[in-house]
Amino acid sequence: MVDASSSDSNQLYLTGFDAPDPFITLYTPQESRILVSELEYQRAIDQSQVDVVRKFSDYNFSKKVEKIGPIGARMGMISEFIFELLPNPNILVPANFPVETADSLRELNVRIKPDIYRNFSKVRSCKSTNEINYIKQVQKATESAMLAAETILQSSTIDGEFLYFEGDKLTSETVKEKIALTLLKLNCHADNTIVSSGKQGSDPHNSGSGPLMANSPIIIDIFPRSNDSKYYADMTRTMVKGIPDSEVWDYYNVTLDAMECAFALISPGTSCKTIHDKVCDIYESSGYPTLRSDPSTNVGFIHSTGHGVGLDIHESPRIGMGDSIIEPGNVITIEPGLYDPLVGGMRIEDLILVTKNGFKNLTNYSKKLLV
Q1: Of the candidates 179, 166, 172, 154, which has an alpha carbon nearest to the alpha carbon of residue 219?
Q2: Rounded distance, CA 149 to CA 39, Å?
Q3: To pair with 194 at 20 to 30 A between CA atoms, which of 80, 109, 211, 295?
Q4: Reduced to 3 states, what is the DSSP secondary structure of residue 48?
């Protein structure tokens, strides 16, 4: 059972119904059903993918409110909705299920237990053909946005330590605006796009602000969502306008090597830890610290190798130190990176589909460093 709006990806996945307010979904192998307000009832019938749609008035919600108030009425209504289908309910819920709903339903003899093993996340991690096509569509938009950003960098000029574009200092905000407008035209949007250089680039999730540096790595990380399908894609490139020093080239070459070595291990049945360990091996053998070699380091390779992508930008499986096994249908990122405030940041990220026989790279964009 899920009690959430469609902003919760479990809810959207189960129902296909996009609604801004919380509603109840009850799923069994035999039947899926939702409980919505009268406001959403007809739209739920027309647009959701569930078997049964119920509305508040089916359970005399207004009279319940008069007798016991809105909160008690809601819980009583939900319990009737459950018992209508399950005479002896024993229900699994996501870890983020509302405590108020869980405790109230327990008092009404509904057994509730959290999905502590994230079984539903594992189900969602293996994408259907339709889901894969949705992700491919967003990835194409991502690449168009990356090209728009790269084009600005190509057209910029160097004056001292900064880049200039159309007579003004080129800023992170200018490039992010171009990315956003490109995505908007392709019916996608992206929150927290990263365009960062210099010391900012050494912080992996610093979105960047202010002037962009010449001769220095500029990390561009775009992870948009489709306004229609709600699926994400994800891609990162690091670019330099100017002449990078030898250490930047070292960062770039070893990161490309780490990525290629990770690709070589991608096949069904491989553990995420095996892939992550290989990336750590490459960096450590080149003299760079990792969180594996030094859990307290804040320079070097300081994040996991990748993550699943779907209705959430970060979902199962996580390509890190855990014991997850990759499976056909997983869509994952591979994104090794190096970070040091004295050098900047370097990250390269592709989007990968795990297939029955290996993998398919869904990213079709150059990894060149110089623009």
Answers
A1: 172
A2: 42
A3: 295
A4: coil
CA distances (Å), origin 34, targets 50, 60, 277: 7, 16, 43
Domains of the chain listed by start with CATH number: 2-116 (3.40.350.10), 125-361 (3.90.230.10)
Cα–Cα distance list, 334 to 107, 258, 260, 294 (Å): 46, 10, 9, 21
Q: What distance in Å separates the CA atoms of residue 352 and residue 332, rounded to the nearest whole number?
A: 5
For the stretch 307-323, pLDDT in tens is: 999 999 999 999 999 88
Token pair for 87: 């005479």
Residue among 88, 96, 57, 93 at smallest CA distance from 73: 57
Rounded Cα gap, residues 37 and 5, in angstroms: 12
pLDDT value at 331 more than 90: yes
CB-based contact 338:301 (threshold 8 Å) = yes
With 0.85 as the threshold, say if the pTM is over it.
yes
Q: What is the pLDDT of residues 211-251, one digit of tens each?
A: 999 999 999 999 999 999 999 999 999 999 999 999 999 99
Contacts (Cβ under 8 Å, ≥6 apart) of 205: 192, 194
Assess contact for 194 and 218: CB atoms under 8 A.
Answer: no
- Angstrom distance (rounded) from CA 366 to CA 371: 11
In angstroms, rounded to a whole number, what is the distance separating the alpha carbons of residues 276 and 292? 10
Contact status, residue 16 vs residue 49, Cβ threshold 8 Å? yes
> What pLDDT is stored for residue 263 in this prediction?
98
* Tokens, residue 253: 């070459």
